[in-house]
Amino acid sequence: MNAIFIAKAFRQSTTVNPEATGQLGSFVGGYVGAIFALIGIVLLFSTLKSQRRASEQQNFENKYFELIKMHRDNVAEIELQGASGRKLFVLLAPETQRYMKAGNNHLTISRQLRRNHLDLRYSNVPYDRKQPFWGSCFGGEKQCG
Questions:
Q1: What is the Cα–Cα distance from 27 to 5, expressed in whole angstroms?
Q2: CA 28, CA 22: separation in Å to the nearest integer?
């Protein structure tokens, strides 16, 4: 299509026709300007998206390092029986392991007791295949309780 306007601008004589070249310039400028505007909008959105990602990452890093700093401050302030800071964790590790083992043993015993208690409770429930237990409580021959 541009070739039509170029041919029309130079067809009549060796001089350039200002009216025809003006039309050609308007035509080309309209298309090229619209394409550049579209490219500019796409690049703007791309830039905003990458800035948002960078901002989120920077916020995460700031929070992360702030939490690490708070943890270090808290560890430095811990003191128990003459030991303080990181040395205290070395001293408390074996004691913590003993408590963990005792807790696991307690949980195992507790689970076994609960299981036995449930077995005892359900072994005392009267069961008759012909008439379920709850049937005797609702107008059956036997009395509940």
A1: 9
A2: 10
Nearest to 91 by CA among 78, 101, 103, 74: 78
Considering 4-8, 68-72, 141-145, the range whose residues carry the highest mean pLDDT is: 68-72
Structure token pair of residue 78: 């811990």
Final residue of a structural domain among 77, 110, 130: 77
User: Per-residue pLDDT tens for 73-108?
Assistant: 998 888 888 888 888 888 888 888 888 887 777 777
Partners of residue 80 on adjacent β-strands:
83
Residues 14 and 64 in one domain: yes
| Predicted TM-score (pTM) of this structure | 0.43
Tokens 């702030």 belong to: 66
How far is residue 34's CA from residue 78's CA, in Å, rounded to a whole number? 66
Long-range CB pairs of 32-38 (<8 Å, 24+ gap) are none
